[in-house]
Protein: DUF7848 domain-containing protein
Amino acid sequence: MTRTVLRYVAHRIRRHPESEAVASARCLHGECQWGAPPSADVGAVDIACMAHTGRHPDHDTFARSFTDVAIVEPV
Ligand SMILES: [Zn+2]
Structure:
């Protein structure tokens, strides 16, 4: 006979204190493979996207991503 003991423990999730959120973007125009370099500064990513549109006016839609490292810990 197998027994399982379940115990409720409250947890929380938060950004890992030794990480920072990183933004990135990639162009969604056709076969374009361009992507903005990942950066902790979303403003720099946005400027890179606008510069890309400046060089290729019909490339005006981007998938932006925001990534961080999270840690789960008991409360
Ligand atoms: Zn593009």
Q: What stands out?
A: The mean pLDDT is 93. Helices lie at 42-55. The beta strands are 11-15, 22-27, 35-39, 62-67, 70-74.
